[in-house]
Amino acid sequence: MRPAAPLLLATALLMAPLGAAAAPADDLSQHDRRQIADLAQRYLERRADKVTNVPQSSGFGIPTTDRMAAELRNDEIKLERRRQRWIARGGAGYSHAQVATELKRVTVANDGSVIAHVSERTELYFADSHTFQHTTFGFGHVLIFNRTAAGWALATATLPPRTKCGVPPETQFCGYSRER
Questions:
Q1: Is the pTM for the entire model greater than 0.85?
Q2: Are 147 and 154 spatial neighbours (Cβ–Cβ below 8 Å)?
Q3: Which fold has domain 23-158?
Q4: Distance from C-alpha of 21 to C-alpha of 57, rounded to nearest angstrom
Q5: What pLDDT does 56 receive?
Q6: What would the 3-class secondary structure string for the chain be?
Q7: pLDDT below 50 — which residues of the chain?
Protein backbone atom coordinates (compact mmCIF):
# COMPACT_ATOMS: atom_id res chain seq x y z
CA MET A 1 0.00 0.00 0.00
CA ARG A 2 2.86 2.33 0.77
CA PRO A 3 4.31 2.42 -2.82
CA ALA A 4 0.94 3.64 -4.09
CA ALA A 5 1.06 6.80 -1.94
CA PRO A 6 3.80 8.55 -4.00
CA LEU A 7 1.96 7.63 -7.19
CA LEU A 8 -1.29 9.10 -5.88
CA LEU A 9 0.50 12.25 -4.72
CA ALA A 10 2.22 12.66 -8.10
CA THR A 11 -1.10 12.18 -9.90
CA ALA A 12 -2.80 14.76 -7.66
CA LEU A 13 -0.01 17.27 -8.25
CA LEU A 14 -0.15 16.75 -12.00
CA MET A 15 -3.91 17.12 -12.08
CA ALA A 16 -4.06 20.25 -9.89
CA PRO A 17 -2.66 22.65 -12.51
CA LEU A 18 -5.10 21.33 -15.09
CA GLY A 19 -8.08 22.45 -13.06
CA ALA A 20 -6.51 25.80 -12.29
CA ALA A 21 -5.26 26.45 -15.83
CA ALA A 22 -8.45 28.06 -17.04
CA ALA A 23 -10.94 30.55 -15.71
CA PRO A 24 -14.63 30.81 -16.52
CA ALA A 25 -15.76 32.87 -19.49
CA ASP A 26 -16.86 35.60 -17.04
CA ASP A 27 -13.30 36.91 -17.27
CA LEU A 28 -13.92 37.73 -20.95
CA SER A 29 -15.71 40.97 -21.80
CA GLN A 30 -18.80 40.87 -23.99
CA HIS A 31 -16.85 42.84 -26.62
CA ASP A 32 -14.08 40.21 -26.67
CA ARG A 33 -16.64 37.42 -26.70
CA ARG A 34 -18.33 38.99 -29.77
CA GLN A 35 -14.96 39.35 -31.48
CA ILE A 36 -14.14 35.69 -30.84
CA ALA A 37 -17.57 34.65 -32.17
CA ASP A 38 -17.09 36.79 -35.29
CA LEU A 39 -13.61 35.39 -35.93
CA ALA A 40 -14.88 31.81 -35.54
CA GLN A 41 -17.75 32.50 -37.95
CA ARG A 42 -15.51 34.13 -40.57
CA TYR A 43 -12.87 31.40 -40.28
CA LEU A 44 -15.36 28.56 -40.77
CA GLU A 45 -17.22 30.42 -43.55
CA ARG A 46 -13.97 30.99 -45.41
CA ARG A 47 -13.00 27.37 -44.85
CA ALA A 48 -16.27 26.20 -46.38
CA ASP A 49 -15.87 28.61 -49.29
CA LYS A 50 -12.55 26.92 -50.11
CA VAL A 51 -14.44 23.86 -51.45
CA THR A 52 -17.00 25.86 -53.45
CA ASN A 53 -17.01 27.65 -56.78
CA VAL A 54 -17.11 31.13 -55.24
CA PRO A 55 -14.15 33.31 -56.28
CA GLN A 56 -11.17 32.08 -54.28
CA SER A 57 -8.86 34.35 -52.35
CA SER A 58 -5.80 33.42 -50.36
CA GLY A 59 -6.05 32.87 -46.63
CA PHE A 60 -8.89 32.33 -44.21
CA GLY A 61 -9.86 35.94 -43.62
CA ILE A 62 -8.79 36.28 -39.99
CA PRO A 63 -5.58 37.07 -38.11
CA THR A 64 -3.55 33.99 -37.13
CA THR A 65 -0.33 33.22 -35.35
CA ASP A 66 2.63 32.36 -37.58
CA ARG A 67 2.44 28.67 -36.67
CA MET A 68 -1.29 28.56 -37.43
CA ALA A 69 -0.77 30.41 -40.72
CA ALA A 70 1.64 27.67 -41.81
CA GLU A 71 -0.89 24.95 -40.93
CA LEU A 72 -3.64 26.78 -42.77
CA ARG A 73 -1.50 27.13 -45.89
CA ASN A 74 -1.35 23.33 -45.97
CA ASP A 75 -5.09 23.06 -45.36
CA GLU A 76 -5.75 25.56 -48.14
CA ILE A 77 -3.84 23.38 -50.62
CA LYS A 78 -5.79 20.29 -49.54
CA LEU A 79 -9.13 22.10 -49.72
CA GLU A 80 -8.31 23.32 -53.23
CA ARG A 81 -7.56 19.73 -54.23
CA ARG A 82 -10.96 18.67 -52.91
CA ARG A 83 -12.64 21.47 -54.83
CA GLN A 84 -10.85 20.44 -58.02
CA ARG A 85 -11.81 16.76 -57.50
CA TRP A 86 -15.49 17.70 -57.34
CA ILE A 87 -15.19 19.69 -60.54
CA ALA A 88 -13.16 16.96 -62.28
CA ARG A 89 -15.81 14.31 -61.51
CA GLY A 90 -17.94 15.87 -64.20
CA GLY A 91 -20.13 17.76 -61.79
CA ALA A 92 -19.90 21.43 -61.18
CA GLY A 93 -18.97 21.06 -57.51
CA TYR A 94 -20.55 23.20 -54.83
CA SER A 95 -21.94 26.58 -55.84
CA HIS A 96 -21.78 28.10 -52.36
CA ALA A 97 -21.90 27.40 -48.63
CA GLN A 98 -24.01 28.65 -45.76
CA VAL A 99 -22.33 28.41 -42.37
CA ALA A 100 -23.84 28.97 -38.95
CA THR A 101 -21.70 28.85 -35.82
CA GLU A 102 -22.45 28.99 -32.12
CA LEU A 103 -20.08 29.48 -29.21
CA LYS A 104 -20.88 26.62 -26.89
CA ARG A 105 -18.28 27.35 -24.22
CA VAL A 106 -15.55 29.94 -23.81
CA THR A 107 -12.74 29.67 -21.28
CA VAL A 108 -9.92 32.09 -20.52
CA ALA A 109 -6.63 30.32 -19.79
CA ASN A 110 -4.04 31.62 -17.31
CA ASP A 111 -1.88 32.86 -20.19
CA GLY A 112 -4.78 35.02 -21.42
CA SER A 113 -5.59 32.88 -24.45
CA VAL A 114 -9.23 32.03 -25.08
CA ILE A 115 -10.42 28.48 -25.65
CA ALA A 116 -13.64 28.54 -27.67
CA HIS A 117 -15.76 25.43 -28.18
CA VAL A 118 -17.67 26.15 -31.36
CA SER A 119 -20.49 24.28 -33.05
CA GLU A 120 -20.61 24.56 -36.85
CA ARG A 121 -23.56 23.73 -39.10
CA THR A 122 -22.78 24.04 -42.80
CA GLU A 123 -24.83 23.53 -45.94
CA LEU A 124 -22.86 23.01 -49.15
CA TYR A 125 -25.08 23.66 -52.18
CA PHE A 126 -24.55 21.59 -55.32
CA ALA A 127 -23.90 23.70 -58.40
CA ASP A 128 -25.59 21.28 -60.79
CA SER A 129 -27.92 18.74 -59.25
CA HIS A 130 -31.47 17.86 -60.10
CA THR A 131 -31.86 15.42 -57.24
CA PHE A 132 -30.36 17.05 -54.15
CA GLN A 133 -30.06 20.76 -53.47
CA HIS A 134 -27.38 20.58 -50.77
CA THR A 135 -25.53 18.45 -48.28
CA THR A 136 -25.44 19.41 -44.60
CA PHE A 137 -23.05 18.63 -41.78
CA GLY A 138 -22.54 19.64 -38.18
CA PHE A 139 -19.12 19.60 -36.58
CA GLY A 140 -17.55 20.67 -33.30
CA HIS A 141 -14.32 22.65 -33.07
CA VAL A 142 -12.00 23.85 -30.35
CA LEU A 143 -10.45 27.15 -31.43
CA ILE A 144 -7.76 28.83 -29.35
CA PHE A 145 -7.22 32.55 -29.77
CA ASN A 146 -4.27 34.59 -28.51
CA ARG A 147 -4.50 38.29 -27.78
CA THR A 148 -2.05 40.35 -29.83
CA ALA A 149 -1.38 44.08 -30.06
CA ALA A 150 -3.74 44.19 -33.06
CA GLY A 151 -6.51 42.11 -31.44
CA TRP A 152 -7.30 38.39 -31.35
CA ALA A 153 -5.45 35.86 -33.53
CA LEU A 154 -6.33 32.22 -34.15
CA ALA A 155 -3.55 30.08 -32.65
CA THR A 156 -4.99 26.56 -32.82
CA ALA A 157 -7.92 24.80 -34.46
CA THR A 158 -8.62 21.27 -33.28
CA LEU A 159 -11.45 18.86 -32.72
CA PRO A 160 -13.04 18.55 -29.28
CA PRO A 161 -11.47 15.94 -26.97
CA ARG A 162 -12.71 12.38 -27.55
CA THR A 163 -14.03 13.22 -31.04
CA LYS A 164 -14.33 10.17 -33.23
CA CYS A 165 -13.90 11.13 -36.83
CA GLY A 166 -14.68 8.44 -39.35
CA VAL A 167 -15.67 10.41 -42.43
CA PRO A 168 -14.95 14.09 -41.92
CA PRO A 169 -16.95 16.78 -43.71
CA GLU A 170 -15.51 18.18 -46.93
CA THR A 171 -14.02 21.16 -45.09
CA GLN A 172 -12.11 19.24 -42.41
CA PHE A 173 -9.30 16.74 -41.96
CA CYS A 174 -9.26 14.24 -39.11
CA GLY A 175 -5.88 13.74 -37.56
CA TYR A 176 -2.54 12.84 -38.99
CA SER A 177 -3.61 9.52 -40.47
CA ARG A 178 -6.18 11.29 -42.64
CA GLU A 179 -4.53 13.79 -44.97
CA ARG A 180 -2.82 15.90 -42.34
A1: no
A2: no
A3: Nuclear Transport Factor 2; Chain: A, (3.10.450)
A4: 38
A5: 87
A6: CCCHHHHHHHHHHHHHHHHHCEECHHHCCHHHHHHHHHHHHHHHHHHHHCCECCCCCCCCCCCECHHHHHHHHHHHHHHHHHHHHHHHCCCCCEEEEEEEEEEEEEEEECCCCEEEEEEEEEEEEECCCCCCCEEEEEEEEEEEEEEECCEEEEEEEECCCCCCCCCCCCCCCCCCCCCC
A7: 1-20, 176-180
